[in-house]
């Protein structure tokens, strides 16, 4: 389930390898060294509208170029090669849901943000699980 807290954490995760790990030296490992967190960050990146908020070059230039206390010469270290489009394998955890008012959970298609209708008549072959069908 995607919550407001997830969306507030995402910028920190997105900036971690690009800036926090090298510039602030705040951890021994990078985000990509934590498979579950790395998959989680890539999953959130696939949600509609999220990727458009992330510009690694601008983020790196701002942190490295403007923080003269930690980086007096404005040297920008090489960026790690990150593949934000690699499969995140988070589908194994269940359908994408978002938290709604009054604690309700709504299943959505992350790329369109449209609600997904679960039909009692549409069942997966050889399974008791229901197939999800996009309502829009």
Automatic annotation (TrEMBL):
Any one annotated GO CC term: cytoplasm
Name of the featured protein: Glutathione S-transferase
Signal peptide coordinates: none
Species whose genome carries this gene: Salipiger aestuarii
Gene Ontology molecular function: glutathione transferase activity
Record-linked Gene3D superfamilies: 1.20.1050.10
Upper lineage: Bacteria, Pseudomonadati, Pseudomonadota, Alphaproteobacteria, Rhodobacterales
SUPFAM superfamilies in UniProt: GST C-terminal domain-like
Pfam families: GST_C_2
């Amino acid at each position: 389930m995607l919550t407001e807290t997830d969306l507030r954490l995402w910028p920190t995760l997105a900036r971690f390898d690009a800036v926090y790990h090298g510039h602030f030296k705040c951890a021994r490992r990078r985000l990509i060294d934590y498979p579950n967190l790395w998959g989680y960050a890539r999953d959130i990146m696939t949600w509609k509208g999220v990727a458009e908020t992330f510009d690694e070059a601008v983020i790196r230039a701002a942190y490295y170029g403007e923080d003269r206390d930690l980086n007096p010469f404005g040297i920008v270290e090489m960026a790690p090669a990150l593949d934000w489009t690699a499969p995140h394998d988070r589908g194994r955890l269940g359908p994408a849901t978002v938290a709604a008012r009054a604690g309700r959970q709504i299943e959505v298609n992350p790329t369109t943000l449209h609600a997904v209708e679960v039909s009692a008549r549409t069942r997966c072959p050889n399974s008791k699980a229901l197939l999800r069908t996009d309502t829009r």
